[in-house]
Design a protein that fits this description.
Blueprint lengths: L13 H20 L5 H29 L5 H22 L7 H32 L2 H21 L3 H13 L9
Helix pairs in contact: 1-2, 1-4, 2-3, 2-5, 3-4, 3-6
Bound molecules: fe (ii) ion (2 copies).
């Protein structure tokens, strides 16, 4: 994989759209582990789509699934806590100056760990109820809402300052306090 351009679909089933992004995260994480890849290029694409995806889930997907009673408040809040933890790990990754250092490798390993945990849990506890309890028409509508916010964040771009601000907000909201939850 040498092209790190981020796909910009305009419609689809929200479950499939989210899974497509999860696969993209995994392939970009693999690129960041590979010393023969353009690790800095992969990191930029990874940060942009990861933040756009997480914000779109929090602003559109989690609240709408809550309103449809597909997920409960605990699941939505737990998802937000994990996004905060991922953003914290992403911040450390973005703060690495070089990509051929032990610090970079350690930061990649940490992001892999917290993100893989979240993807597994989100697919089991949020996407499965969306599959089972939300109609196809509603999943399409949710897909459009998800893509709209995702696209706005991709247009705005993601810098280390963007991620730092998200981590600060998460601290202020108490999302990063229950490390053992
Ligand atoms: Fe997700
Ligand atoms: Fe998520």
């Amino acid at each position: 994989m040498t092209d790190y351009s981020i796909p910009r679909p305009v419609s689809g089933d929200v479950v499939e759209l989210i899974l497509d992004d999860h696969r993209l995260f995994e392939s970009l994480m693999r690129e960041m582990r590979d010393s023969s890849s353009d690790r800095a290029g992969a990191r930029d694409a990874f940060a942009a789509v990861l933040v756009a995806h997480g914000e779109a889930e929090e602003q559109q997907v989690y609240p709408r699934l809550r309103r449809k009673d597909a997920i409960d408040e605990h699941e939505a809040e737990h998802g937000e806590e994990e996004h905060a933890e991922i953003n914290q790990a992403l911040l450390e990754l973005l703060e690495c100056k070089g990509t051929d250092t032990q610090k970079f490798d350690d930061a990649v390993e940490k992001v892999n760990e917290v993100l893989q945990h979240h993807l597994t849990e989100e697919e089991l506890t949020i996407l499965n109820p969306a599959r089972d309890e939300v109609s196809e028409a509603d999943r399409q509508a949710l897909g459009s809402a998800f893509l709209k916010v995702r696209g706005e964040h991709l247009d705005a771009g993601v810098t280390v300052e963007t991620v730092r601000a998200l981590v600060q907000d998460a601290h202020a909201e108490g999302l990063l306090e229950d490390e053992d939850d």
